[in-house]
Design brief:
Blueprint: H1 4-56, H2 60-82, H3 86-107, H4 111-114, E1 119-120, E2 127-131, H5 139-142, H6 145-151, E3 155-158, H7 166-175, E4 180-184, H8 187-200, E5 204-207, H9 214-218, E6 236-246, E7 249-251, E8 254-258, H10 259-265, H11 273-285, E9 294-297, E10 300-303, E11 307-312, E12 334-339, H12 344-352, E13 359-364, E14 366-370, E15 375-380, E16 383-388, E17 391-405, H13 420-427
Helix pairs in contact: 1-2, 1-3, 1-12, 1-13, 7-8, 10-11
């Protein structure tokens, strides 16, 4: 929705729906409505606090906390039914949901703000692909990727042995005259070969044959049928995107520090992810395990975060943690999200957005993470490795020429960030510039 007029009417519709939902509750709920609203707010706060204690304690207290989390919605439904107001609550929620949807539509970024610029390119003469037949549960074999790539004139190397140096395979192929590099595999392998492609300024093709395919998702590629990614060889367009760097190692998605990296590094995690996570979190959240991290960026110092995520370009910030999608991969910035939750009260405040002392969001070209330990675990594109400290993360703007199929699903347009003041200005016809989301780069805590 790029028309100013359409955005303005969407903003007006949102505010009207909010008003209607409020009038409905006041008119139909009667005297019982007020205490039910108070009960709902209190119940949600109790549930969030209990969820926090479920994560930080063990034994009987943990299961009592879980019982409270499960009991709260039941109690609320029973209370609304007893007052004969369940239908009023459901209609109010529906109206509120419609209001939020209209608001996000009105405040959504313009297409030129999130659409990746591309240019037409000629067909490559000697493409080379690295393919992992084990990745993604065997997608390379299941979708016949080797046969299809070779039919398009590509040379294919299968990495069917553990410890294969995929970067050397790529460099050797370039020495034989390859003019395009591609990978059918996980994001970790994508990053390794992308680093070689960037060093030699040759095009790079992503084939979504991994398990999660986060990189492919943010490039707008087809994750259901990876063979469609090969169409980049015959009818492709090209874009220049950024790569992240962590102590000299390339990452395409993100590097995670703190709780996630500590948990995944545990040998027991592979066999029982849930139990290992629940056993490890209490010590991590109470500071009895894991390195004490200090992150520095753009004059901002974050002391002792429980979790720190550094991404190659910022994630959308329409949700609390920011772990959504990246609308652009060419902004020349790292996205940083740091979280520290030290009490149930702080957890409730974060969930209710009453305060954001435990959450910091910064967009910056560099981040330095320090710790007393000589090495710390870092999850780099889903793989946990030990990295020497201090850890320096940087972004390398526009270094990768990524080749994309001309016809592809594309990315989901980013949602607008809710800002009721901006929405009001837009609705009454003031400050048309207020229709876009707030600029990135602000400290949220």
């Amino acid at each position: 929705m790029d028309s100013v007029k359409a955005r303005r009417w969407s903003a007006r519709a949102s505010l009207a729906l909010v008003a209607v939902s409020a009038v409905l509750l006041l008119a139909l709920a009667g005297e019982g409505g007020l205490w039910l609203l108070v009960l709902t707010a209190a119940g949600l706060s109790v549930a969030v606090a209990a969820a926090y204690w479920f994560l930080v304690v063990r034994g009987l207290l943990r299961w009592l906390a879980l019982g409270i989390v499960l009991a709260v919605p039941v109690v609320l439904v029973v209370a609304f039914v007893a007052e004969g107001l369940l239908w009023v609550a459901l209609v109010g929620l529906a109206l509120w949901g419609a209001a939020v949807g209209a608001a996000r539509l009105a405040l959504a970024p313009r297409r030129e703000e999130w659409e990746l610029p591309v240019v037409d390119v000629p067909r490559p003469a000697h493409p080379f692909f690295v393919m992992n037949p084990r990745s993604g549960g065997g997608k390379v074999t299941r979708f016949g990727l080797v046969r299809k790539a070779e039919a398009m004139g590509a040379e294919v190397a299968l990495i069917d042995q553990p410890g294969t140096d995929v970067q050397q395979l790529a460099r050797d192929a370039l020495g034989r005259g390859a003019d395009l590099l591609g990978v059918a595999g996980g994001d970790g392998t994508q990053a390794l070969v992308a680093q070689v492609a960037a060093e030699h300024d040759v095009p790079f093709v992503v084939v979504s044959a991994g398990t999660r395919n986060h990189f492919a998702l943010d490039l707008g590629l087809d994750r259901e049928d990876p063979s469609r990614c090969l169409e980049a060889l015959t009818d492709g367009v090209e874009a220049r995107i950024d790569l992240g760097d962590i102590n000299g190692r390339t990452f395409v998605n993100n590097a995670s520090f703190g709780a996630y990296a500590e948990i995944v590094e545990d040998p027991a995690y592979r066999d029982d992810k849930t139990r290992t996570t629940l056993d490890t979190l209490p010590d991590l959240l109470r500071g009895r395990r894991g390195a004490h991290l200090v992150a520095e960026m753009d004059g901002v110092v974050v002391e002792g975060p429980h979790a720190l995520l550094v991404s190659n370009n910022p994630y959308e910030n329409g949700d609390l943690a920011g772990a959504g999608r990246r609308a652009r991969l060419d902004r020349g910035l790292l996205g940083v999200v740091a979280v520290r939750v030290s009490s149930a009260r702080q957890a409730v405040g974060l969930m209710n957005r009453a305060h954001t002392r435990g959450l910091v969001r910064v967009d910056t070209p560099t981040v330095t993470v320090r710790a007393a330990e000589e090495q710390i675990p870092v999850g780099i594109d889903g793989e946990t490795v030990q990295v020497p400290t201090p850890v320096r993360c940087t972004v390398r703007p526009g270094v990768l020429r990524v080749r994309l199929p001309r016809t592809r699903p594309g990315i989901r347009p980013p949602r607008g960030q809710l800002d009721w003041a901006t929405l009001w200005r837009l609705a009454i016809g003031r400050d048309p510039a207020g229709q876009t989301v707030r600029p990135q780069g602000a400290l949220a805590g």
